Amino acid sequence: MKVLGINAIFHDPAAALVIDGEIVAAAEEERFSRRKHGKRPVPFSAWELPEQSARWCLEHAGLEPADLDAVGYSFDPALARPAAEQGLHDPWDHLRLTYAEAAPRFIATALPGLHRDRVDYVAHHVAHGASAGLAAPFAGCDVLVLDGRGESASHLAGRYDESGVLKTLVTQELPHSIGLLYEDVTEYLGFLRSSDEYKVMALAAYGRPRYLDAVREAVYAVPDGGFRTEPVDWAVYAPARRAGQDWTEEHADLAASVQRRLEEVLVELASWLRAQTGGTRLAMAGGVALNCVANTVVAREAGYDELWVQPAAGDAGTALGAALHLARALGDSVRPMPGADLGRAWSDDELEAVLRSARLPYERPADVAETVAEALAADGIVAWFQGRSEYGPRALGHRSLLAHPGRAANLDRLNAVKGRERFRPVAPMVLAERAAEVFSRGPVPSPYMLFTHDVAPAWRDRVPAAVHVDGTARIQTVERATEPLVARLLDAFERRTGLPVVINTSLNTAGRPMVDSPRDALECFGSAPVDLLALGPFVVRRPEVR
Prior knowledge:
globular, Carbam_trans_C, Nucleotidyltransferase, domain 5, transferase activity, DHBP synthase, 3 domains, five-stranded mixed sheet, 22 strands, seven-stranded mixed sheet, transferase
């Protein structure tokens, strides 16, 4: 079966293709349109489809729209209710339902040759659940989904059996939503809601959870496996912060209090689920599952032996989940996610043609890993563009900015290059076999940067740029078998510096999507103070200023 998945209704529009149960391609629309998150999550944008990413998925597989057996759309309007009935204040929410009801016609128009009868609705949280439970590296597992909202709920807890059939045990109806609560505090703290929630997580490390008891009264689990989120007057605890305004101790303490309560409630929800199923393995998805600090607490305290989190856990991942769900329903035996590198790639000849067209001086060293390691050891910042682009919000060694971890100033330096807040941490890459030496108290392997780890005391002064203010790091472990080029780079860097870690952050600047194409890479290199661009096997050096 050839099944295309589409996410479009809220934010992060994306497309994914599954053929005969195998995940072939997946990409977010922002990588093509160059609009961060693809669009803003307002009702007026619900009609916008991931047309470019859907067409690319088909082109990548050599398919035409008429070749598709099914298209899954990750929202089912039949399950939705008017916003006012759900306790939501959104007078234009009815537009979402109107657009969702018309989605089969819209998709058939965007993909000529596709008959609209082949478009099926997949419930939003079922799509999230399938992106985790059916893509996980194990068959048969519990699944926990938490986000802002779906059709009429914000949470799903259930179990996939060995054959891939989902049994839903509980859902939490709106207006109660941990995701929306976190969005609210994100906006109150001066960040962009449905976009900058990770900034609240980062800011929380600078604060103390002084208001935790009060937040506990408003956010709590209930015995049936759900939870309640009561309205919170944030002004009691901290003044509203405007975008660009300096943050204060009160802001950090509020962030810390909400973050800590999120962790506590997630552990309670996961523990309830485990008690119902007796399961030993848990898969998670939904935007809340991008909170790597909370994921680590769940992994440590909820009692599961294994926890796997979908790397595109936000709404973009529902495109993949919708495709996997329909593929399974149509009789295919679906296979685990092979990795996050599911996007576009260019051949060496194509990359060289781009460089020639740009009229840039470049070279092709004997081993780009050695050349980049030399630049990093000399404290250069490197733009790293290799292989297929990543699906999801994390740069995982394919579209990355790299730097030396042993220079404490490189944290501020990278944040300045990217034009982002100084309190934001950057992430270290480390070979999987070396991870336990440098990092502890976190799941290993951790190939998708979805958990935090304590930096071992003996290493904190050696890799200061990798250490967040609370002594942790959000690591990416690298397997030699799946990432041989990055592994060679890490080996080459350690030979020169004695450090088995390289700093990795996404190849983009503030407010811009992650670099996807060679042209994007050249534009970013040309506009940011980066010392060297590694574009496939080629390198472009920053000219010396005379």
